[in-house]
Structure formats: C-alpha cells, structure tokens
Amino acid sequence: MFKKDRYCCLFSWIYVMFASILCTGMILGIIIGPEEIEYPIYYMSQNGTLEHSYDTITTSQNVGLCVTLSIIGFFGIAITICVHQILKKNRTSELEPLIRKEVPTVSVQFPQVNYQYQPHQVNQVVVPRMM
User: What residue ranges are annotated as transmembrane (predicted)?
Assistant: First the structure.
C-alpha cells in the first residue's frame, strides 16, 4: 500500500510541476500580448509565373487556447492537491489502529542486593630505589 501511495504522490507532484510551468507560460503569453506575424504565401499566377504575397496572423487568436490550457492546469493542480490529501488521510487512518493498540504493561521487581565494597589490606609498601 505504501509503495502505491508513494508512486501516486510522485506522479501528482510531477503533474503539479508540469501544470504550473504550463500555466506560467500561457499567462505570460497572454500578458505579453498579441503580436502580428507576417508570412509569405507563394502561388502560381495565371500567366505561369511564381508570385507571392504576405498574410498576417495575430497571436491573439491563440488567447482562447491559452486560457483553456491555463484553466486545465489550475484544475489539475487543485485535483492533485485533493488526491494527495486523500492519500495522506487514508495512510494515517490505516496506521491508526497500530498506533492506538494497547501494549500490556509488565512489572518486574529486581531482588535487593546488599553489596559493600571492602578494599583489601596492603601489608607491604614497595618503594623504588634510585641508583
């Protein structure tokens, strides 16, 4: 159970990182704003020569996509946080019976030991002699 939770949390945090980077990029794209991009269009004229003209596209046409991706990213972050909280709650509820399990107490009485230190008697004192 713990291994599955660990991989779920790892996946959810990777998703949070990806979604936050995606949202930041999309919001910056919206803030920086519409920009006109000019690109050439080549075509054959009626007399058989290759001609070209320029067409423009504005990046503001992508604002709808940016907003949609940002909303998906924010919902993804919210869902991920909820899943993480649920997994954390489930893990603690599984461990709760183990934590609250009563352990029987055992009383141990050690016997009294009367021990008295008695230094042994030294009869001779040896003094080193200097030569």
Answer: 7-32, 62-83
Query: Among residues 78, 100, 66, 60, which one has the least CA distance to residue 12?
Result: 78
- Please answer whether residues 21 and 74 qualify as being in contact, where contact means their C-beta atoms are separated by less than 8 angstroms: no
Find the angle CA(107)-CA(111)-CA(116) to the nearest 5 degrees.
Answer: 140
Q: Using an 8 Å Cβ cutoff, are 12 and 84 in contact?
A: yes
Beta-bridge mates of residue 41: 53
For 92, which DSSP code?
Answer: H
Query: Strand 36-44 relative to strand 50-58: parallel, antiparallel, unpaired?
Result: antiparallel
Distance CA(29)–CA(88), nearest Å, equals 36
Query: Helix, strand, or coil here: 129?
Result: coil
